[in-house]
Amino acid sequence: MNVSVIGTGYVGLVTGACFSEFGVQVTCVDQIAEKIEALGRCEMPIYEPGLEDLVRRNVRAGRLTFTTDTAESIRSALVIFIAVGTPPAADGSTDLSFVEAVAREIGRNADGYKVIVTKSTVPVGTSKKVRAWIQEEIERAGKEVNFSVASNPEFLRQGAGIGDFMRPDRVVIGAEAGDDQAVAILKDLYRPLFLNETPLVMTNLATAELSKYASNAFLAAKISFINELAILCDRSGGDVQAVARAMGLDRRIGPKFLHAGPGYGGSCFPKDTLSLAHFARELGEKFEIVDAVVRANRRQRQYSLDKVVSACQGDVRDKTIAVLGLAFKPETDDVREAPAVDIIRGLLERGGHVRAFDPEAMSQAERILPEIVLCKDAYQACEGADVLVIVTEWNEFRMLDLERVKGLLAEPVLVDLRNIYRSEEIVRAGFEYWSLGR
Questions:
Q1: Is 410 part of any domain?
Q2: Amino acid 401: pLDDT
Q3: Strand order of the sheet with strand 2-6?
Q4: Are residues 199 and 239 in the same domain?
Q5: What is the pLDDT of residue 144?
Q6: What's the confidence (pLDDT) of residue 91?
Q7: pLDDT over 90 at 107, yes or no
Q8: Is 284 found in the same domain as 403?
Q9: Is the dihedral of CA 152, 158, 162, 166 positive or negative?
């Protein structure tokens, strides 16, 4: 079976590489020639653990190729995944221009039966639009070509994408009523996972499209809930980590996504919560919980910034702040909607100076935060700083040499926005310690 994956962002690249690992012939397509050339040399445009080795192995085996020739990739494939970007608009809606462009390209070049699968996260009803766009181009060309449209949302966590693809909690496939041929083809494509008893959810197009938004919005709500509790703990003297443990031991709730911090970020949760709320408004409804989650996350960014300012005695003007962690989470170089970015911008606006380090996100941060000093490691970031702030919980920040850090800082002040240290340990080491909800 030949598969084409159009779009080599995070989702498209991980999807294409993982399918090729199943023994499928995969072509990954992108319009950026420099990116395709680099991928052909097995140079990754993103940081994702294990991805380079996976790509290199399958390129060497001849199962995975990269091209800018979208037309040829469409003609040669039976299954075509649309995995292009769907950026948010100012009103929270989703920009489908890239999806439309690909759909129309498929219509112009399809020369036989194809299964077109939306892998990008798209609003409910997009698959119907994809069908209409393709059909318009087929009719304009005076052709007669049969095709199927399906929805196969991704549930990949950055930093764990390969494991999530190879050992997923579930695979969701949405198809049009009675389209047994498309269902059979996609089941065959995912057959290696079903041998491991991966649950398969077969449903209609709208349900499949909505399932991704529902999952991400629920997880964002869980994060926002514990963050709001952290504020209550700060006010009342409670310990949010103990509260989270007590909650998580309830099997109905579970412990995951109950870690207080400066708010969720990345390319999914912020965009998907806004998109789901916008979709509800289009239907004339309100999704009150999701609206509240969006507000709570904004509040948490501000609350975290205020905590850093308070640790600087209420004024960061002309003070130097060492920031550890720029990516929105560990094991990625993605700084999109990262809490660190908002916090740093807030510090700069108040007249502060920032020295920062992240194990993987330095080049990404340099483009959007040119005013800050990027350092070679955590210790260089601490040199002469008035306060140290941990924003992203990379493993290498969990056991810093506290005596060395204390000697490098102008003042022994630590703001731990991820609660990765024990307060007794930090105070015993001679630091003034600030955390969230403890």
A1: yes
A2: 97
A3: 64-67, 25-29, 2-6, 79-82, 114-118, 147-151, 171-175, 200-203
A4: no
A5: 93
A6: 86
A7: yes
A8: yes
A9: negative
For 83, residues 6+ apart whose C-beta sits below 8 A from its C-beta are 5, 6, 7, 8, 9, 11, 12, 15, 119, 120
Q: How far apart are CA 255 and CA 408, in angstroms?
A: 36
Pairwise CA distance, residues 122 & 423, whole Å: 43
Domains held by the chain: number: 2
Identify whether residues 156 and 268 lie together within a single domain: no
Domain that holds residue 160: 2-203
Are residues 252 and 386 both part of a single domain?
yes
Is 245 a member of any domain? Answer: yes
Residue type, 205: L
Catalytic residue (choose from 268, 312, 375, 382): 268
Predicted confidence (pLDDT) per residue in 272-283, tens digit: 999 999 999 999
- Alpha helix locations (H) across 195-312? 205-236, 240-248, 269-282, 288-311
* pLDDT for 197: 87
Residue 195 or 218, more confident:
218
Determine the Cα–Cα distance for residues 393 and 324; give it in Å rounded to an integer.
8
**Tokens 């609350």 appear where?**
303
Is 268 annotated in the active site?
yes
Token code pair at residue 259: 């870690």
Which residues have CB under 8 Å from 230's CB, separation 6+?
Answer: 240, 260, 436, 437
**372 and 418 co-located in one domain:** yes
Helix, strand, coil distribution of the chain in percent, nearest 5:
45, 15, 40
Q: Residue 214: inside a domain, yes or no? A: no
CATH of the domain at 96: 3.40.50.720
Segment 281-294 shows an average pLDDT of 95
Q: How far apart are the first and last CA of the chain?
A: 55
> Could you say which of 171, 203, 235 is where a domain stops?
203
Among candidate residues 203, 233, 254, the one where a domain is terminated: 203
Phi, psi of 404 (to 5 degrees): -65, -45
| Same domain (yes/no): 194, 306 | no
Model pTM score: 0.93
Is 231 in the same domain as 372?
yes
Exposure on the CB side of residue 90, measured as CA atoms within 13 A: 0
In this prediction, residue 381 carries a pLDDT of: 98
Q: Which DSSP symbol is given to 217?
A: H
Residue 215 burial by CB count (10 A; 0-12/13-18/19+): exposed, middle or buried?
middle
SS3 97: helix
Same domain, 224 and 333: yes
pLDDT band at residue 90, thresholds of 50, 70 and 90?
confident
d(CA 110, CA 131): 13
The answer as to whether 212 is a domain residue is no
